[in-house]
Write a structure and sequence with these properties.
It is built from 18 helices and 22 strands. With 719 residues, the protein is an alpha+beta fold. Helix 5 runs antiparallel to helix 6. The longest helix is centred in the middle third of the chain and has 33 residues.
Length: 719
């Protein structure tokens, strides 16, 4: 027996040594995304958006139009100037050389409706590839330079990053605007007609005036907090949220267009330029912008340059050796962190199940050693897989649990595990009860994976410095560090595998085992409740419905597909149970149907939108039963979404639940004093002659009214 133990210990040591030696070489093969510069984790990755400008002549004002093209990478989008939700909008402002914001008209595209990848069920307005923003420049600015400053939040379905970008545009000399291409002849003239004025920039001064903008006048629209981007209030003017400007990683672009740059400025800029030529999307020679990236002192917004001091500098990581050592210790400490309480219950349940293996002491030892080895293997495999997931998705430690789909699936798994511990049914692979049949190796491995998955959001001493260093390294180094963290977490189980005689300290199963299993079940149910608290609000009800269906499916499985049932019955019942859960999950995670995007009534914004886009105004109140009936029938979400898309209309809801003199004045101006009332405001000359529908009406009547007010669908009336 002693000889067998020694051989087993040598085998365990050899397996671990081979794993650690081969890991650096296997990672680039198994993980093709691994690159020498860190791939997606590089701290110096370029912003996935490009900016370019062109100039055109505006015959209406005898001035010019600066067209700023915002072109996110294919998988990215930017939130529109009016995003429809509380988030950081796209804000474009124009400044003179001193940085003073100028009060110039900035026209934005409305944005395209998009399912928010971070909040299922929420629709946002976003900018996709090649989105123009138009700035009207008066003739009195001819021959000067202006800075076009863009602040936006760039997001993919994996992450977001704030971007701040400056372009210096040199305007043509006096009288030279007329030599530019006419805006009416440009391919983007249709988009110019759709663009609407944006919100004014706080502290802006009229062109030609002198003044100092107020603090925070150059709007970034969001503050940078510990957790990323902190939205400013939705009704605040851009830049007045008391936020710190996010430093640009690209510097300031100096752009020469259709004019000459002063020789002194040209020579100064040449000292720090990299020749980047940005051609207008149409590919014409007129309006081509030649951009040069100016670095260092030329930047008008300061780059952060801090010298942080750490409370425990000896725990900060500066090299691979220290990272591996501290990662090993951090993984070991993870086993005793308070947040792994549900994980401890899983581990104890597995130990008790294996300690009761039938047979003599030698059989118990072999079962105990085997369980710990495969449990440790599950931990190690999960940590290496986790490194790959985080690298590919560009996520940080614990950020995986910010994905609603991951939280949804994990809650379902933990809940069904709890049902299994209460004896409702038996999971085919992951069954932690004593005396279960099936492969003990597979069950031990899967228990290790699930236990480590639940512990992933936890952090502990030493781990912060290790991860902070590791996430700035190449993917292969990141995987190696994660493997050592996993090795540290698995070390107690590897120790027990090397000393299987420790099984004698675990009691044999008895009547008390059932009580222990139920206690573990309560721990798992408590974990499910915790996971429910961090689910997005839009997924809470679908999650509860899914858990109810899962409980019913588990009851079917345990009652009608047990050992006493025929094989045909077992297969049929299990297929029905799995199908029930699968269909419910598909329903719960399915994207919502198109929803109407109502805007609350705000007098200034409403006055600005009149005449520029068709507007549908609905007067309602909580105390008005006919209003609520109308909203559930004629004005339901499907109809409003259809009409909004067909006519390109904006939807404004005026809530009269509480006394609002401004809203009441608007109602009285339409010749009404009672509700429900719906007013249709067309564009152009008829913008002050809205078509009004009173009381209850049908969808057909609404269709007729819309066509009369706005013209045929897709062909709105011209001004």
């Amino acid at each position: 027996m002693r000889h067998q133990t020694r051989v087993s210990n040598i085998a365990i040591s050899c397996v671990l040594a081979a794993f650690l030696l081969l890991l650096p070489g296997l990672v680039p093969v198994l993980v093709p995304w691994a690159t020498l510069d860190g791939g997606a984790l590089s701290a110096h990755a370029a912003e996935p958006v490009t900016f370019s400008t062109e100039l055109a002549h505006d015959r209406e004002t005898a001035g010019g139009i600066i067209v700023l093209w915002i072109d996110p990478a294919p998988e990215y989008h930017a939130y529109a100037h009016e995003p429809g939700v509380d988030t950081r909008p796209t804000v474009v402002s124009v400044h003179d050389r001193s940085g003073t914001p100028l009060d110039l008209p900035v026209l934005y595209m409305p944005g395209e409706p998009l399912d928010d990848p971070f909040t299922p069920g929420r629709i946002v307005n976003a900018y996709g590839p090649k989105t123009p923003v138009f700035v009207k420049v008066p003739a009195l600015l001819a021959g000067g330079d202006v800075i076009v400053r863009t602040s936006l939040l760039l997001c993919s379905d994996r992450n977001c990053q704030p971007v701040r970008h400056d372009i210096v545009v040199t305007l043509p000399g006096e009288g030279a605007f007329a030599a530019l291409p006419d805006a009416a002849s440009r391919p983007w003239r249709g988009k110019l007609a759709q663009a609407v004025p944006g919100r004014p920039v706080a502290g802006a001064v009229a062109p030609g005036m002198t003044g100092t903008p107020s603090a925070g006048a150059v709007g970034d629209g969001a503050a940078i907090g510990m957790g990323g981007v902190t939205p400013t209030p939705r009704d605040a003017a851009p830049g007045t949220g008391g936020s710190l400007p996010f430093p640009s990683s690209t510097g300031v672009d100096t752009t020469a267009t259709a004019g000459n740059v002063a020789r002194g400025e040209e020579e100064q800029a040449q000292k720090a330029v990299s020749g980047i030529v940005s051609v207008s999307p149409e590919g014409t020679s007129s309006g081509v912008a030649v951009s040069r990236s100016v670095s260092g002192a030329a930047q008008e917004s300061p780059a952060w340059s801090f010298a942080p001091r750490y409370f425990a500098p000896e725990l900060e990581v500066s090299g691979l050796g220290k990272a591996l050592l501290l990662g090993l210790l951090a993984g070991l400490i993870l086993n005793v962190m308070p947040c792994v309480l549900p994980v401890i219950s899983l581990k104890l349940s597995g130990f008790i199940a294996t300690s009761g293996a039938p047979g003599d002491e030698g059989v118990r030892r072999r079962a105990f050693r085997e369980h710990n080895l495969f449990f440790a293997a599950g931990i190690l495999v999960w940590f290496v897989v986790l490194a790959g997931i985080l690298a590919v998705a560009g996520l940080a430690w614990g950020q995986l649990f910010q994905r609603p789909g991951v939280l949804f699936g994990l809650t379902l798994v933990v809940f069904t595990l709890g049902l299994s511990m209460f004896g409702v049914f038996s999971l085919p692979v992951l069954d932690l009860k004593a005396g279960t049949t099936g492969s003990p190796r597979a069950q031990a491995f899967m228990t290790g994976v699930v236990a480590t998955l639940l512990a992933t959001p936890c952090s502990g001493p030493l781990l912060g410095g290790v991860l902070g260093w590791a996430f700035r390294q190449p993917s292969s180094v990141l995987a190696l560090v994660f493997a050592f963290v996993g090795l540290g977490m698995a070390s107690p189980y590897l120790l027990m595998a090397a000393r299987p005689g420790l099984v004698r300290f675990f009691p044999r199963p008895g009547a008390w085992t059932g009580v222990m299993e139920q206690v573990v079940g309560f721990f798992l149910m408590a974990t499910s409740v915790y996971l429910l608290t961090i689910l997005p609000a839009a997924l809470l009800l679908p999650m509860l419905v899914t858990l109810l269906v899962a409980a019913f499916a588990a009851w079917l499985w345990g009652t009608w597909a047990g050992p006493g049932a025929s094989s045909v019955q077992r297969i049929a019942v299990r297929c029905v149970a799995v199908a029930l859960v699968g269909m419910t999950v598909a329903w719960a995670l399915s994207p919502p149907a198109d929803e109407a995007r109502w805007e609350p009534f705000e007098a200034t914004a409403f006055r600005d939108m009149l005449g520029r886009q068709p507007v549908i105004v609905d007067f309602t109140a909580d105390w008005c039963p006919n209003c609520k009936l109308l909203e559930r029938t004629t004005l339901n979400a499907a109809n409003m979404a259809r009409w909004q898309k067909a006519y390109g209309a904006r939807l404004v809801r005026v809530d009269l639940t509480r006394d609002d003199p401004v809203a009441q004045a608007l109602l009285h101006s339409l010749g009404s004093s009672s509700i429900p009332v719906v007013a249709l405001f067309p564009t152009g000359l008829l913008r002050n002659a809205p078509l009004v529908l009173r009381d209850l009406f049908t969808a057909d009547q609404m269709d007729e009214a819309l066509e009369r007010a706005f013209g045929p669908a897709g062909q709105p009336l011209q001004p």
